[in-house]
Design goal:
Blueprint (H helix, E strand, L loop, with lengths): L2 H10 L6 E3 L2 E6 L3 E7 L10 H21 L2 H8 L3 E9 L5 E8 L2 E4 L2
């Protein structure tokens, strides 16, 4: 996807259309939140630790920060809709189920494991 196509998809977030980029999904919730979710890079649920999840959360926030720096459309959507950003790390059980591992809003991490 080129930069122009990506800009168009970013603006569609405001219409409720999720944006999927590799292991990251970005969508707008009715609760005035921009939800940024990443799927943990492991296939074995038993190998998941809080340290691993925290590392993935840090990587997700850095990646999204890079996106925001590259595309001011995110800032426009956040500001014009008075949105906060909520990050989520989840486990994908081969398409059977998505299991939430943690979320972060305003610097506070909520653990689900």
């Amino acid at each position: 996807m080129n930069k122009k196509q990506l800009k168009g998809k970013i603006y569609k977030l405001a219409d409720g259309v999720p944006l999927k980029l590799d292991r990251m999904t970005i969508n707008l919730l009715d609760s005035n939140k921009l939800l940024v979710t990443s799927w943990i890079n492991t296939i074995d649920f038993k190998s998941i630790t809080k340290d691993l999840v925290n590392k993935e959360l840090i990587e997700l926030k850095a990646l999204f920060s890079e996106l925001m720096s590259s595309f001011n459309e995110f800032d426009i959507i956040l500001t014009s809709n008075n949105l906060s950003i909520e990050y989520h790390i989840a486990f994908d059980d081969s398409g059977k189920a998505g299991i939430g591992l943690c979320s972060e809003l305003d610097g506070k991490i909520n653990w689900y494991i």
